[in-house]
Write a structure and sequence with these properties.
Elements lengths: L1 H10 L7 H15 L5 H51 L2 H4 L37 H6 L2 E7 L15 E8 L6 E7 L8 E6 L6 E7 L18 H7 L19 E2 L2 H6 L4 H15 L2 H20 L1
Antiparallel strand pairs: 1-5, 1-6, 2-3, 3-4, 4-5
This protein binds a DNA duplex through strand 2.
DNA sequence: CGGTTTTGACCAGCGC
DNA sequence: GCGCTGGTCAAAACCG
């Protein structure tokens, strides 16, 4: 699994934060030799030493955190293996009861909204497969669940891209209409999107993305911040939700039948929950953020000196 | 005026 | 073959 490696990469800050050390000593000696021991210079040297110690401390903390994360990942992997084994023992019928007796393309896609019980349902993209097998074989399909205001009747999912609505239908298994969108860059961009309110929870919109954009996200291109590679990996299928403007995307559970994504990073619901929790606990920890900031600034200092 | 949305009609796949 | 269903088309309406 790639998670451990990825985290390892992010936390492997090779901090070389002591380039000032030698200069300090040389400077100090020189000052003493020249009998120009100025009070101001002494104070600045003291400050440098304090900063140096602080950087060392933060560096150690960073290493400890990296070690902890590695351990967590290892434990998680063990749990994951256990879970997979257990799943293998459960008969498949129990998992897929709802679709029995229904048309191939007619599985209740809203039964799994917010719930994590069908994350590995690779058929999520097969809604068209029985009708348009030629298209769906090669197309990536991902699904996003968006929490919206119940009173908000518009089936709009702000994902940064521009969409053109080309149809709306009321489907059998859901009283709420399903809206069909095409990327505004069509026909050059083949991406389609289906948005429907969840039958169970009216405040949740289910958006199914079909295909991949062959152009930049119009709003994303305006961003000056560098997006985390972790986010890029987890959200890549439709490049969904990486924009800070997309504040209403409160819950992103991107499902992709692209096996690459599933195996590398989104193999199971448990994994998603753990990753989310890990990320939120880390980002809410001020000491971690401070350590990260120190590590990055140290790295930048190194690069500017080199 | 051009782009987008709405909405009824049409088409194709599937089950009976 | 027929009816049901999901997906798409395209003309009309709408909007900035």
């Amino acid at each position: 699994m790639g998670t451990t490696n990825m985290l390892g990469t992010y936390l492997d800050f090779d901090l070389n934060i002591n380039p000032l050390h030698q200069n300090d000593e040389t400077l100090e000696r020189q000052l003493e030799e020249d009998h120009f021991v100025d009070e101001e210079a002494k104070v600045s040297i003291e400050k440098q030493k304090v900063l140096e110690e602080e950087l060392n401390r933060v560096s150690d903390e960073n290493k400890k955190l990296a070690g902890m994360l590695t351990m967590m990942c290892e434990k998680y992997n063990a749990l994951q293996t256990l879970l997979t084994d257990l799943k293998g023992k459960i008969p498949e019928k129990e998992v897929d009861v709802k679709s029995v007796g229904k048309r191939k393309s007619n599985f209740d896609e809203n039964n799994n909204v917010v719930g994590l019980d069908r994350i590995n349902d690779s058929r999520s993209g097969d809604e068209d497969s029985c009708k348009r097998p030629k298209q769906s074989i090669s197309k990536k399909v991902s699904r996003v669940f968006v929490k919206v205001d119940k009173s908000d009747s518009s089936l709009l999912v702000k994902d940064g891209y521009q969409w053109r609505k080309y149809g709306q239908k009321v489907t059998k298994d859901n009283p709420s209409p399903r809206a069909y969108f095409r990327c505004s860059f069509a026909p050059s961009c083949p991406v389609k999107k289906k948005v429907q309110r969840s039958a169970e929870d009216q405040s949740v919109l289910t958006a199914s993305y079909e295909g991949e954009h062959n152009h930049l996200n119009p709003s994303k291109s305006k961003m000056s911040l560098v997006t985390s590679p972790l986010l890029k990996t987890s959200l890549s299928p439709g490049s969904i939700g990486t924009n800070s403007l997309e504040s209403n995307l409160t819950l992103n559970m991107v499902e992709s039948d692209s096996k690459k994504h599933v195996q590398e990073f989104q193999a199971s619901p448990m994994q998603k929950v753990l990753i989310e929790r890990m990320a939120s606990s880390l980002t809410s920890d001020p000491s971690y953020i401070a350590a990260l900031a120190a590590a990055i600034s140290g790295r930048i200092l190194d690069q500017t000196r080199a």
